[in-house]
Write a structure and sequence with these properties.
This protein has 359 residues and is an alpha/beta fold. It has helices at residues 10-26, 47-52, 69-87, 99-110, 130-141, 150-158, 172-180, 208-211, 214-226, 237-246, 262-271, 280-288, 303-308, 318-327, 343-353, and strands at residues 2-7, 31-36, 60-61, 91-95, 115-118, 144-147, 166-168, 201-204, 231-234, 254-257, 274-277, 293-295, 311-313. The longest helix is centred in the N-terminal third of the chain and has 19 residues, at 69-87.
């Protein structure tokens, strides 16, 4: 059986690595063809990145990125359609909610190739987010939907998707966290930055809704400044540019450092006191390491973390950010929401047990 896996952003490579490993270990008869659309490219997408994370290198790199959402999706759709006609896969496997996800699902649907969607059913219920449109459309295209949580499963069922198509498997990012936490390493930090385990807050900001709005970004930094937390802030290039353009001063209690690799990020998540972020993935990883999270967004797709008290939504309200960072405590909830760390194995077993409709 041929499976064409489509990914375009670094978090998707990490998730796909877990599933690729499960294919090799449990179903060596499956031929997986890995396609990188090129949606996100940076220096970390190098041989070193793939080698140190034991991630299979893509079989194809389409080199598409840097345009608008519409431009990227259209160009990806054209190239992916040609590639699918050449490869003739029995399944197309997509992850999450990027433009690459939607383009892969659309290309496959037009060619009547069944789509399997990993991380299906997530909803922020904010249709202004490009990611929300991508994930909703992909879910309604997909033949099999791998939901990471019960909440995600219920969202799909509520939208009228057949229960037979929905498979509750847990979260592949939890699989990845379990695998990579033993390989995590402390980042190279400036000599003057003497962080102690359990005594700092880890902050990331990169979403366009925050970085492209000068008032929101200023409010966020004001909230960070007004807190009593010592904050380590690996600054995303997008954020760094906007901070300079808007003339925002970095507060004294915030240590802005260069972006770090995934293994260094895992170390900081495991060793910080709490997390402040606008990243969907970092929200979950904070929870995996038992760290409370302050989410600088107006809504989140990981609603079960908010309901359990592990995640506090503060938007860009400076006072809410400051109060949360200063007073956040560990919740009493002990229920775990993301499976048993075997999501990839379940996905591979289910996918291989299904008779493809492409033949």
């Amino acid at each position: 059986m041929k499976v064409l896996t489509i990914i375009g952003a670094r978090p998707q490579f990490i998730k796909a690595a877990v599933v690729s490993r499960a294919f090799k270990e449990h179903r060596p008869d499956v031929q997986e063809i890995l396609v990188h659309t090129g949606q996100h490219y940076d220096a970390n997408m190098s041989d070193v990145f793939f080698d140190e994370l034991e991630i299979p290198k893509p079989d194809y790199n389409l080199g598409i990125g840097g345009g608008t959402h519409g431009q990227n999706t259209g160009r990806m759709l054209e190239k992916l359609e040609s590639l699918m006609l050449e490869v003739q896969p029995q399944w197309v496997l997509v992850y999450g909610d990027t433009d690459s996800t939607l383009a892969g699902a659309l290309a496959a649907a037009k060619l009547h190739i069944p789509v399997a969607h990993i991380e299906a059913g997530l909803r922020s219920f904010n249709r202004k987010m490009p990611e929300e449109i991508n994930r909703v459309m992909t879910d309604h295209i997909a033949e099999i939907l791998f939901a990471p949580t019960e909440t995600a499963r219920q969202n799909l069922f509520t939208e009228g998707i057949s229960e037979a198509k929905i498979k509750l498997v847990g979260d592949v990012m939890y699989d990845a966290t379990l695998f990579y936490k033993e390989k995590a390493r402390k980042p190279q930090l400036p000599p003057q930055l003497d962080i102690r385990v359990g005594d700092f807050a880890l902050c990331t900001i990169h979403r366009a809704e925050n970085t492209d709005d000068p008032q929101r970004l200023k409010n966020i930094f004001q909230g960070l400044a007004d807190s009593n937390a010592s904050i380590v802030f690996p600054m995303h290039p997008r954020t760094k540019g906007k901070v300079a353009n808007f003339g925002i001063a970095i507060p004294e209690n915030v240590w802005a450092i260069d972006p770090v690799g995934y293994l260094e990020m895992v170390w900081m998540e495991a060793n910080c006191r709490l997390v402040a972020t606008d990243s969907g993935g970092v929200q979950k990883e904070a929870y995996f390491f038992g760290k409370p999270c302050v989410t600088m967004r107006d809504e989140t797709e990981w609603v079960e973390l908010v309901e359990a008290g592990w995640n506090t939504l503060v938007g860009s309200n400076a006072k809410k950010i400051s109060d949360a960072l200063s007073g956040l405590s560990y919740p009493e909830s002990t229920e775990f929401h993301y499976g048993k760390g075997n999501a990839a194995e379940l996905i591979v077993d289910i996918l291989c047990s299904l008779k493809s409709k492409a033949n």
